[in-house]
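#lab-general

N.A. 3:47 PM
ok so I finally got the sequence cleaned up, no stray characters, all 455 residues accounted for. can someone with queue access submit it? mine expired

B.Y. 3:52 PM
send it over

N.A. 3:53 PM
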Amino acid sequence: MTRSVQALAYARPSFLASTASGRLLGLETAGGLTPRGAEAHPRFFSGFLSSPQIAARGLLAVADVAAARYHQRPRPGSLDPVVTGNGDRLRFESFSGCGGVYARLDVLAEGLGGAETGHGTTNVDVNDPLREALSRMTGDDPMHLRVGPDEMAVSTLGGSVVEKKVPLPDRWLRGFAEAQVATAGFDLRAELTGAEAVRFLRGLPRSPGRGRAPLWVAQTGRALRPTTRPGAGSVCLPGPERLAALDRVLRFATGLRVYGPVPDGAAAPSAWEVTLPGMRLTLTLSPDTSRGFSGEGGVLEALATDEAAADAELVGVLLAWEPRIDPADLAEQAGLTADRVRAALTRLGTAGRVGYDVADAAYFHRELPYEADRVERHNPRLMSARRLVAEDAVTLDGDLATVASGERRYRVRGSNGPLSCTCAWWADHRGRRGPCKHALAVRMVRRGMTTGAVA
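B.Y. 4:20 PM
back already:
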């Protein structure tokens, strides 16, 4: 698995302190992007939280996921959460070290006391002493939240005094992109009250079940019930122990919303959103505990077109840190069709420039702190498909195509819709994990795509 090391430079450690007017939670920021460009220590918010204890617990839950590996646990994850200011909310995001769980805490306008936030994205320091202090926090005394250095620190910063060097695996980066594509196809499948949510979540198994078939649940009346097989309205719950981070906020839950795709009989991803006063905490699970989002292949179609690359460049210029991106509005501004805008948003998602909020059923703008083309450069299927195109391995014959790969020949069938292939990948997954490299190469040739550099 390809890795790089990202240096996160903070002016000082984040902290929780007592003051004459209550508590002060100072979250320090590392280099990030704002409307003004790159900043070493951007400032996004300074104000009092409406529900301090809930916010503290929600932040801990996001940090729990960032530090967790739900598969092959001996190696912990370590990347600090990402925070985005969208003007009317703060979004704290993280991914588990294994790439199979995506967490996001949305602190909405009511949770921020109606105060506005800045715009931009950066990492925030959540160190062990801060985690311990937040864990011990009781009561709901007033708490002032500061995201970014204070005014005095801004004027006196001469350099970084705290630096963390953390591994940044490609599967983690691809996971952000794939999770966004998956959730964009979700619908609301179930909704519970706070009491029913607590009853259901606390009754889930907490230990991994090796070799255990995925759990399916469906709403019956006001409750969620396990089912033996997927059916209309059911939701897949692969690895229920991966929802453990929600325990941090259960006592404050006002409800639970569950999102997922239309069941097709196979294990599927799902999103579990606990609603809280002024906030939402959402965990999105990959289809299998041993398989992260990075291998799902949902972004490959968008990455495989020159048209989407050009459209993404245009649409990216029009993004303005909106909490909700309106594809129809973007289509009008860019002079593109809605389908082309959606493909462009998918491609922008691979660069970390947009995410998807299932509660709003809308994309949102953010800028993850990594190279924009890294996901594309290190996607094995995409690179293999580009190589096949460069080697003139694809022969078209109407709706059929032949792809020469080594000493084998594969037949790819279809044109405008989903493509099928005679390879083992297609036989195993039937398109559920995106196109195989042969189908992807055929798609590229049919669209007249230039291959570019092939590693």
